[in-house]
Design brief:
Length: 346
């Protein structure tokens, strides 16, 4: 008689199975990327579609498509009924027309350069830092614009997607009733700034970012846009200087470079502003994150591409102090982000 041995965790996945699954977890993002790039989610509508018919629509191999979808189903991405492949709530987020779309975010974190970087993690553990510049001879974003131009556009779209998920919560969490001017530094195309301006009709806003980022701003911020009378769009590099004087400066999800560059950007905000101006750091803190796998995973990717990091409360407080700013407090902004509020000393 063979006696079964219960899993060591008391009924869930055994340690052996958990480790085997984890060691092959790279199959999941690879499968996600393949599904996005071949257009599976956009081709699938509201009714089940047989795999063969879906493959013909996409002009892909039906047998391999079935294997791809079999892998994704393990993660709740797509499902299959007797009548064919159907969407799940998760797979719908890969559709171009979904209001909470994450199609380009998935592409951004699975770009070819990402797969090149992950093997460098061992060296980073041994040396304490990433080695992107030594490997490629230039800093990450310069290399990206030069060698992976398509990836730059994917990045811009992915940041807009993330802003769509969080901007309303940010606007709701900020008390800007006594503020006249607001600068969103490194704000990309300006989705978050536009949302904040809509929520605060008295406010005038300035979007500051690199030329490539502001080349196609949010329609509301354009010269013929609904917010044109209360906004301006300026090219600028916050690591050099910030060409805008404002009552409030916001850095949303960008101060995740190496510590020296983060401090430089904060000091430039302090120089651009005036005593009493506020400087906000909007980020997802690791120690308070409801998405700890996401926060810690992106922390390691930041290490490898910009030698950066995702912050803890203690870490961000130290950077604020180094920059010569006064820490006023840290508060949640919705479910995903935190606002680290600082001020320029009087």
């Amino acid at each position: 008689m063979i006696r079964s041995t219960p899993p060591a965790d008391g009924g869930g996945t055994s340690p052996v199975t958990a480790l085997r699954d984890l060691s092959l977890a790279s199959a999941a993002p690879a499968a996600l990327r393949a599904a996005v790039r071949t257009g599976v989610a956009d081709a699938l509508g509201e009714i089940p579609v047989p795999v063969g018919e879906l493959a013909r629509t996409l002009q892909v191999d039906d047998a391999v498509l079935l294997r791809l979808l079999r892998t994704l189903r393990c993660y709740g991405v797509f499902d299959e009924t007797a009548d064919g492949i159907v969407h799940t709530p998760t797979s719908r987020l890969l559709r171009e027309d979904h209001p909470q779309r994450l199609k380009y975010w998935v592409q951004w974190v699975t770009e070819p350069w990402v797969w090149e970087l992950w093997p460098d993690l061992e060296a980073a553990v041994r040396t304490g830092r990433g080695h992107f510049e030594e490997r490629y001879g230039e800093e990450f974003f310069a290399h990206l614009h030069k060698k992976w131009q398509d990836s730059t556009e994917v990045f811009n779209k992915s940041q807009t997607e993330l802003s769509t998920l969080t901007s309303a919560a940010i606007a709701e969490s900020l008390d800007l009733s006594d503020v006249k001017t607001f600068a969103d530094v490194g704000g990309g195309r300006g989705y978050t700034l536009a949302t904040i301006l809509e929520a605060n009709p008295h406010l005038h806003g300035t979007l500051v970012d690199l030329p490539a980022a502001i080349a196609d701003p949010d329609p509301r911020l354009r010269p013929d846009g609904a917010l044109a009378g209360r906004s301006r769009v300026i090219a600028g590099d916050c690591l050099r200087d910030i060409p805008a004087e404002a009552d409030v400066y916001q850095f949303k999800s960008i101060l995740e470079w190496d510590d020296d560059r983060t401090v430089t950007a904060l000091r430039n905000a302090a120089r651009a502003g005036r005593p009493g101006s506020r400087v906000l750091i909007v980020t997802n803190l690791i120690d308070d994150s409801p998405e700890v796998r996401y926060a810690t995973g992106i922390d390691l990717l930041f290490l490898l591409n910009t030698n950066g990091r995702r912050h803890t409360r203690q870490g961000v407080a130290g950077l604020v102090e180094r920059a010569g700013l006064k820490l006023e407090g840290i508060a949640p902004a919705g479910q995903l982000l935190h606002v680290v509020e600082t001020s320029i000393p009087e």
